[in-house]
Design goal:
The complex is a heterodimer of chains A (114) and B (113). With 114 residues, chain A is mainly β. Chain A is 0% helix and 53% strand. Classes of the chains: A mainly beta (114), B mainly beta (113).
Chain lengths: 114, 113
């Protein structure tokens, strides 16, 4: 058990809809990362927050947004969903911002857009 | 273009065989990490290497960081069915200005009993 909790585990929704994915980091971890994993693209970095501040942005679409709250949990909002957004979405946390700090991953949210 | 290229993409071997998987890039990394991911779960860290030429061992797994810190390899001796999974390398680039961790697409390993 990594200590990172993601909800929901599965989500099925229709095109055009909006969903919110939730992540609770490990106790004490200040940094939260969001990744999208698909079969053809692998694990793609979306966005990182550190203690409530956005720190880095990857290949995140404009239809997607995220935030980290004062209690350090984070939410990833996906809107105007398309079939191609179907993927596994992972949240990870780390204690520090260093070059060798490990990421602790949750078990992901599987999003299916129909 | 993928920043980190992993090869092979798929590997199916018999129990007891040895194998090596590779992680290559044209970029220099401050550190490289290897993760293993099993179906339905998130990746789990196996090792971090930070010094060029560094070799780390974890039981039957041997990890090496290239001298120029652009590549890494993972060697498994006497593979067992429990080694089955997706092996991912991930790196943080030198001077990238962020702590973003970039992943390769992974090597999917199947060890047949």
């Amino acid at each position: 058990d990594s200590g990172v909790t993601q909800t929901p585990k599965h989500l099925i929704t229709a095109t055009g809809q909006r969903v919110t994915l939730r992540c609770s980091p490990r106790s004490g971890d200040l940094s939260v990362y969001w990744y999208q994993q698909s079969l053809d693209q692998g694990l793609q970095f979306l966005i990182q927050y550190y203690n409530g501040e956005e720190r880095a942005k990857g290949n995140i679409l404009e239809r997607f947004s995220a935030q980290q709250f004062p209690d350090l949990h984070s939410e990833l909002n996906l809107s105007s969903l398309e079939l191609g957004d179907s993927a596994l979405y992972f949240c990870a946390s780390s204690a520090q911002e260093t070059y060798n700090s490990p990421l602790h991953f949750g078990n992901g949210t599987r999003l299916t857009v129909t | 273009t993928q920043l980190l290229e992993q090869s092979p993409q798929f590997l199916s071997i018999q129990e007891g065989e040895n194998l090596t998987v590779y992680c290559n890039s044209s970029s220099v990394f401050s550190s490289l990490q290897w993760y293993r991911q099993e179906p339905g779960e998130g990746p789990v860290l196996l090792v971090t290497v930070v010094t060029g030429g560094e070799v780390k061992k974890l039981k039957r797994l041997t990890f090496q960081f290239g001298d120029a810190r652009k590549d890494s390899s993972l060697h498994i001796t006497a593979a067992q069915p429990g080694d089955t999974g997706l092996y991912l390398c991930a790196g943080r680039r030198t001077g990238a200005g962020s702590y973003q961790l970039t992943f390769g697409k992974g090597t999917k390993l199947s060890v047949i009993p």
